[in-house]
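Two proteins, back to back. First:
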Amino acid sequence: MATATAMRLSTAAMSVSLLFLVPLSGLAHGFVTPRSLLNRLSGNNNYLTTEELWFDQTLDHYSPYDHRQFKQRYYEFLDYFQVPDGPIFLKICGESSCNGIANDYLMVLAKKFGAAVVSLEHRYYGKSSPFKSHTTENLKYLSSKQALFDLAVFRQWYQESLNLKRNKTDGENPWFVFGISYPGALSAWFRLKFPHLSCGSLASSAVVLSVYNFTDYDKQIGESAGPECKAALQEITQAVDQSLTSNRKELKSLFGAAEFQYGNPDKLCTPLVEAKKAGEDLVGVYAKYVKEYYVGSFGVNVESYSQKYLKNTAVNEDSSDRLWWFQVCTEVAYFQVAPANDSIRSSKVDTKYHLDLCKNVFGEGIYPEVDVTNIYYGGTKIAGSKIIFTNGSQDPWRHASKQTSSPGMPSYIITCHNCGHGTDLRGCPQSPLSIEGNAQNCSSPDAVHKVRQQMIEHIDLWLSECKGTGRSYM
C-alpha cells in the first residue's frame, strides 16, 4: 500500500513538472502533443475536400498466411488534375485523425503542376483502425514499416483504378510524395524503400533520425527563446520544482493539469519577459498562458501525459495519444529530457520517467528500439535519392532531420524568427493553418519564397525525368 501511494505521489509530481513542457514545446510542433489539437488548428473550413473514400488494406504485410484486411480511409482532390497524364501527389497523413485535404501550399503546387492529390489515413488513427480495441496485443501491427507498405499497396491500387476509369491499358502517371514531421519521415522512407513507385519526395521537417534522449530539443528552445525568455523559463522551472513537495495540489489546480504542446515564441515569451521585468509572479503568468491559449482558445484535451488516460484502449477520436505513444515507446523514443547543463526543462522529466510510462501503459517488454530503427532507415545517413529535405531554423525537431545536402538529396533551412515546423508547406504561423501556406506573416517571407522556388525546380526536374519526356511540367 505504501509503495502504491508513493507511486501515485510520484506520478502527480511528474504531471506538474510536465506542465513546463508546454512553453518549451510551444515554440514548435512536438510529437507528444495531443493529436486532436492538430485538427482543431486546421479547422474544417480550411479543407478542400472532406469526402471520405475507402480502401481494403492488408493488416499484416509481412505474413504470407494472414489475409485479414481492414477499411482504410482516404481522400482525393481532382480539381487541378490534367487528365489523363498529369502527376499524382500523395500527401501522407500521420499520427492523428486525417479529416480531409487541407488547403496548404501543397495545393498551390498541385495547381502549378496540374496534379491530382490523394491522401491516405495512417493505419489505426482516425477511422482506419483494424480493431475495436487498442490493446497492446492489437497494436502489434502499428509501425512505420507496416504504414509504408500501406502506402505502396494503396499507390498501386489507386493507379490501377485510375487507369480503368480513364480506359488506359498501359503506362502510369508520375507520382510525387509529400509529408510533414513524422509523415515527412515516411515520405523520405517511402522513396528509400520503394524508389520505383515515385518520382521523388518532399520531406518537410522530416524526423528521420530516431533519438533516445533528445537533449537537442531543449537546447534549440533556449536558442530560439532568446536570453531573456530563457532566463524566465528557467526561473519558472526552478520555482515549480521547489513547490512540488509543499503545495502540489494548489499548484496543479493553478495550471488545470495541462500537458500539451504547440504555439509560437512571441505568444509566450513577450508576456513572460514583461512580467519578469515588472517583478510579477512568473508562475502565475505562465499558468494564465496555458489556460487561456491552449485550453481556452483550442479546447484541448489536457490528459495526454496522464497514464490512466493513455491506458484507455477504446477506439475513438481521442485514441491518437495512446497510438502515438505506442510508436514512441517501440520505434522512435524522442524522449525530451534535460541536457546536463543550462537546461530549461525540469530534470525530473528524465529517461526513467519515459521508460516507466512505456512499461506502465503498454506492459513489460515495451521499449523503443531506436538503434534498430536507425539501422533500418539510415537515420540522417539515409541512402535515398530525389528527396528534398526542408526545415525551419527555429524548429527543435530539425535536429532529428537531415540538415546537410548530399547527392540527390538537397536540404534547405528556412531561416527566420518564426520559421518552425513545416513552414515550407504551412507558412507562418504553422498553426492555425495559413491558407495556401501564406508566408506573408513570416518574419522573412523572402526566405520562404527562395526555398519554395528550389522545391519547385526539383519537383519539375524529377517529374520530367520520371516521365522520360524531358519536358517541364510547369
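And the second protein:
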Amino acid sequence: MILASSRKSTLEVIHKHGPCSPLVQDHNPLNHTEVLLQDESRVKWIQSRSSNSSNGLKASAAASLPAKSDITAGDYVVTIGLGTPKKDLTLIFDTGSYLTWTQCEPCVGSCYTQSEPIFNPSQSSSYANISCASTSCSQLGVSGCSGSTCLYSIKYGDQSFSIGFFATEKLTIAPREVINKFEFGCGQNNQGLFGRAAGLIGLSDNSISFVEQTAAKYGKYFSYCLPSSTSYTGHLTFGKDGGAPSSVSFTPLSKVREDSEFYGISIVGISVDGNPLSIPSTVFSSGGAIIDSGTTVTQLPPTAYSALRTAFRKAMANYTSAPAFSPFDTCYDFSKESTVVVPSITFSFAGGVDADLDPSGIFYVVKASQVCLAFAPNRADSNLGIYGNTQQKTFEVVYDVAGGKLGFGSNGCS
C-alpha cells in the first residue's frame, strides 16, 4: 500500500498574463487599473462572506438557481487533463474557492472565449452526471435538479458565474497520477472575468474541494511557488513526498469563522530593514487574516499600513516620488535609476515564523516611472486582513491542511 505521504505530483504554474501563458492571445500591455479594480471587488467579496454568517446574495437574473457567492481575480493557472481520452485544460487555481469547474459543450446558456477547445462530455467515456439524491449533491450547499441530475451554481462577485451539471470525471495531473470519479462542475452557462482560462480549480478547505476529494491520495497537503515575474514559471505540488524541505517554517492555520472555507493565519508583526514596527498586537487580532492565492494585493489593518508606509517612505526618502495609482498611495519614479536599494520587509506570523519578502513582493510595477508599495489598507482594523499573492512570490507556500499548519520556505522558485 502506498501511504498518502509518499505520493507527490507537480504541475507547472504560470501567470495568466505572462509570455509563457497559453491564454495570452494578443500581447497587449496589461491594464493595471482593470486588474486592481477586479482585485478590489474580490477583497470586498471575501470580507463580506467572512463577516456575515449567511451568504445572503440574490441570484443574478441570468442564473436560474440560487447562487453561492465567491469572487475570483485568479492570477495563476495550471494545466490538467480531463476525460477519456484526456483533454488538456488550463484552469485558474484558487485557495479561496471550493468548486472545480470547466466550461462544457454544448454551452446551453453561454460560454466565454477560452484558449483551448471547450470540453465535450459526450466525447468522454469516463464522464457521468451526479444524481440529485447523492450526498455530494447536497454538500454543494446551493444546488438544484434537472430531472434527476444535480445542478450547481456558483457566483463570483458581480459579473462572473458558472452554472451547469455537477458530474464525475477522470482527472489527470501527470501521466501516472490520475484521480477517478473526481467531482466537478460541467458549466453550461458561464460568464465573467476568467481571462481565457477554461475554468477554475478549487483548493479551499471544503468537503468538495480538490484538497478534500484527493485526501486519500495526497493527504490534504499541497504547496505552490508563485514566480517573481510573469516571465518565469512556478509550480503547484500535491502530496508530501517525504515531508517538507527543512527550510520551511510553519505557522498554525486557523478558521476565521467556524464554517469558513478560507485559510486563516495570524500575522503578529511587520519589520522594515530589521526594525519591528510598533503596532499593538490587537491591531492584527481584531479582524484576523487569511492567506489567498487569488487576491493580488495584501490588505492590512489601516493602523498597521500607516506604520509600514511611514517607515518605508523614510527608508526611500532619497528616491523621486511619483503620483499615486489607486489603491496605492506610495509610488516612486525609478526611470532614471540604474539600481534601487529596496528596504527589506519582514512579516512575522504566529509560531515564530518570519517571512522576508522578495523584492518582487514589495513593489507593484505600473511602469518604470510609477513603481508602488504593493499593500493596501482596509477600511477599519476590524476588517478581515488578506495576505495576497504579490507578497507570496518566490516562497514555497506549504498548506498542510491535515496538520493544521501553513509553511513558508524561501527561494521556492525564481
